[in-house]
Design a protein that fits this description.
nine-stranded mixed sheet, two-stranded antiparallel ribbon, Inosine-uridine Nucleoside N-ribohydrolase, Chain A, alpha/beta
Amino acid sequence: MLKNRRGIPLIIDTDPGVDDLLALKTAFHKPELDLRLVVAAAGNVSLEKTGANALFITKTFGGDIPVAKGLPGPAAADASSVHGKSGIGGFVLPEHGFSFSEENGVDAMARVLRESERPVTFVTLGPMTDLASLVTRYSGLIPKIGAVYAMIGSRDGTGNMTPFAEFNAWCDPDALRTVVSRGLKLVFAPMHLGREAKLSVDGLLRAGEGCAFGEMLRDVFRGYHDEAAGEGYVAVYDSHAVMALLRPELYDFIPCRARVDADRLPGQTFFEEDPAGGFFTLEIRDGDALKKAMLDCLFPEKRKS
């Protein structure tokens, strides 16, 4: 059993993805977080590509954190028009000797839960395929899940994949509905947050000057095109799920109920304010302070230099 580890025990399920890349880097080497596992999910691009991206990013910038491949997912999802064919813009992964965990992602999640002496928090940055499989196959471990911080859905039934569905929710609406039905503490970071607190590409590159990750971003952004964010900006959708753990004072956690359509309009969600709803949806409390905190958390090595 793992003992005497500080920080919130954490598993991140992610489909990198440029904004996933930023969220992962934000989570690495933070004393508040004890990141025990990264699982690659299919989503923005294929599982083969998201897996390769998650492995390289985690091992290069996060250190010796296990990385496992999750499930392929049911939908033919593809956001390469935004994130580039590889999922991380214009950056080309170099050859390396990193390797995945032998376990599949869902089994690895279950093992971390069993071994943890404290409840484990999940951050999900893509479709909820892996988490839905976990809570179905290993339902006895649900009490060991402390909370789930999820970048998924929209508060008002609008979308970016279709007029009524956000991308992650659209990819696997059945998985989202399964997770919502299991009595977990869910904290939703809905789609609109990424556009409200978007960062300028130039600002990110200036903030990262002189460090390896900042240099990598120069190549990443050469192949990234998000029309919703606007020319020269990146909508940091996924980072809110991590920042709400690191800097909760910068958000309002609004009690809500959640409705998910997996049938008529697949992936449509409504997060409606309700003190007895059982879930929470995030709203930004101080946008300027949040943007500054995002940059500080993304490049902590700059403060040490």
